[in-house]
Amino acid sequence: MKKILLVEDDPNLGMLLQDYLQLKGKFEIVLCVDGEEGLRAFNKQNFDLCILDVMMPKKDGFALGKEIRKMNESVPIIFATAKAMMEDKASAYDLGGDDYITKPFRIEELLLRINALLKRASVKEVKPVEPVQSQFQIGNYTFDYTTQMIQHNGQQQKLSTKEAELLQLLCLKQNAVLTREEALLSIWHDDNYFNGRSMDVFLSKLRKYLKEDPKVEILNVHGKGYKLLVN
Q: pLDDT at residue 4 above 80?
């Protein structure tokens, strides 16, 4: 039985989700009412997935998610919030979240997302790891995917996980087209509209990080995707 950490400060919604997911999903649900309690639970137990409300007292969901990511890089995290701004969705993925669901939502939809993330996680566990290039020269920049660091003229820029994953894909296809669908499915596992908008935010950040070398460009290829061009 898969164990899920559910952190939700609304007691009625929390108990409703707990009962439904235990009954329909046959999961073991550990319910916590604020971020601090959620962090204590994560420190004491092993979880297969986390569902974190964003707006909570003591420690909000984003802060909790950041702490969880420091301890575990692979456990799937779903952020749930009434805030639907694109910046909030970008923040969720930037912090290492795997999915984002906006309140109010149908519990059936949440269950579908949970099952999809758990299925992907199980595939990753059994799939043999193939060596992938992690160090790149991008014009006058050096990029280390493992440390998520860009260096240029003695200056360092730390990237978020999603930024590093996106830049690695661009580097692996340097001077060739990285399709939008390929990038979204590889990093976000879903090529929906909201994930696409989030990716646009990260591309803008990468362009800013690489702007000091005029020979380096990230181009939009109309109708196809993007190209990391190094002259």
A: yes
pLDDT tier at 131 (50, 70, 90 boundaries)? low
CB 207 within 8 A of CB 195: no
Q: What is the CATH number of domain 3-126?
A: 3.40.50.2300
Judge whether residue 126 has pLDDT over 70. Answer: no
The distance of Cα 192 from the centroid of its chain, to the nearest Å, equals 14
Does the domain at residues 135-230 carry the CATH identifier 3.30.160.20? no
Tell me the two tokens of residue 88: 């909030």
pLDDT-derived band at 156 (thresholds 50, 70, 90) equals very high
